Every structure is written in structure tokens, then in C-alpha cells.
Amino acid sequence: MKQEKWMSLLGLAYRARKIISGEELVVKEIKNRRAKLVLISKDASLNTSKKIRDKCTYYEIPFYFVESREKLGNAIGKDERVVVAILEEGFAKKLTSMLDE
């Protein structure tokens, strides 16, 4: 059940246009410090995963791993997504608390 909760919140954030997806765009938002939270799918390639983790660590942006690219994509009503960034503090905080459970 917990899973569906974060997914519907992610969907809400997406509809509010507070989410960006796609590796290059996410990296850009991290560099501009606009990303408040980054979600990476556990099945992302090692290369992508490392690149995003390193950027997040360097710019001190929290990140979480989620089950799969399918789940990440489904949550925002898209095809598979490997990485998404949440651009709004409120959504980021709420998602963090849900994913910490």
C-alpha cells in the first residue's frame, strides 16, 4: 500500500508541473539546485545511476532509489522513467517522509 501512496503523490506533483524527468534534464536541475529530491530507479544502468548519485552528492541533493523504471513512469503517467527530479520543497518533503517509512 505504501508504494501506491508515493506514486500518487508523484503523479500529483507531475500534474502540478513540479517534476522533471530524463537524465540530462535532471542533471541540469541538480546543477541549478532547483531539484529538491531525485528518484532513481533501481534498474537504471550503473553508469546513469552513478552519474546521478555523484551529482546529487556533490550538490547535496537528497536521492532515493525506487523499485523500477516502470513504477516511476507509471506514477507520472508516462512510459518507463529511469530518473525524475522533484522541483518543489513541499512535494519533496512529503515524498521523503513516505519513502522513509
From TrEMBL:
Q: Where are the transmembrane segments?
A: none
Tree of life domain: Bacteria
Q: Name one GO biological process term.
A: ribosome biogenesis
* Gene3D superfamilies listed in its UniProt record: 3.30.1330.30
Q: What are the Ribosomal protein eL8/eL30/eS12/Gadd45 domain coordinates in residue numbering? A: 5-95
InterPro entries, alphabetically? Ribosomal_eL30-like_sf (IPR029064), Ribosomal_eL8-like_CS (IPR004037), Ribosomal_eL8/eL30/eS12/Gad45 (IPR004038)
Family matches, as Pfam families: Ribosomal_L7Ae (PF01248)
- Family stated for the protein in its record: Belongs to the eukaryotic ribosomal protein eL8 family.
- This chain belongs to the protein called YlxQ family RNA-binding protein
The record lists the organism as Lederbergia citrisecunda
